[in-house]
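Entry type: protein chain
Record version: 2
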Amino acid sequence: MTEVDYYEILEVSRDCNGAELKKSYRKLAMQFHPDRNPDDKEAEEKFKLINEAYQILSDDEKRSIYDRYGKEGLNRQGGGFRASSMDDIMNIFNSMFGGGGGFGKSRSDPGQPYPLDFEVELSLEFQEAVFGCDKEIEISYKIPCTECKGTGAKDSKLTECEYCRGQGQVVMKQGFMTYAQTCPKCQGKGKIAAEKCSSCHGKGYNTKDQTVTIKIPAGVDSGNRLRVQGHGNEDRHGRRGDLYITFHVQEDENFTRNGSDIYIEVPVFFTQAILGEEITIPSLGGELQLQLKPGTKDKEQFVFQGEGVADVHSGRIGRLIAQVKLILPTKLNDEQRDLLTQLQKSFGMESHPHKSSLESAFDRVKGWFTGE
């Protein structure tokens, strides 16, 4: 049997750091979370493996043993993954992310008809993400229907599902194999509405609008997620789940962001680059003085430490990197052409570098045709 590779499972390199490991784990765990993939055994097994891999690789000692001896080495040391059930794995997941019931139905209340947590996307201006801000957003969350008490049935009257005969699942046979799956008609409840509730049209819930003020921390970036406790959907006991906000940060016309670093392209006229002038450039905090070196090249970079964006997790401030874009004149008047010609002549042979550097190539090509 081929042993699974924890690094491949988490889609990271073997030399990844803790931040890269957690970022990949978070993405994959959310993707394959059982509540997002109901009745998908393959996704559930993938979720188990993802948690197993993260529990090993996030522990420096276990990771060191695994890197040297593989999974067998962990088993010999007694340091393997010890979650014995899906509930154990969910406890691990929730302890890391602070969740009470993941993204789906509460595990302690199988009758909950809809997920208590839900997710929205929020677009931010470049400066809002860089500096942080308070943002008002409109959300619409679910509340149990009071008319049918969340059952979806008129007067809360439910009857046994005829399709599964109240079992909540149906059994299918294929050759020698027998499969059990959630009943598609009653969604595993075993009961269905004798008549749909007129208030919620059989859904078991209605929606309620709310304006929420969110404090956006400085340094968030596209793809980052923020958990807002107690602003999710409401269950029949009046308890609310959590709201998850995924950010999309708009681009700026001058600044380009890469993590906590900021890049800016600085147009420089060729005479400024040759002479090495001091120029003023914009930064996130105002203005900076950039001292060009005599003979500055196109695409040359100048780095300003501590002038970038604060990392939303560590608080470390990145760099501002100014990259030169050399500007050459496209049109010359007679006076400018004469001045440049005089300047070129004043450098002598230095103004014709191609002649000396390519002289041997000229001779070789000439020899190909003359036979010399």
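Comment: The mean pLDDT is 84.
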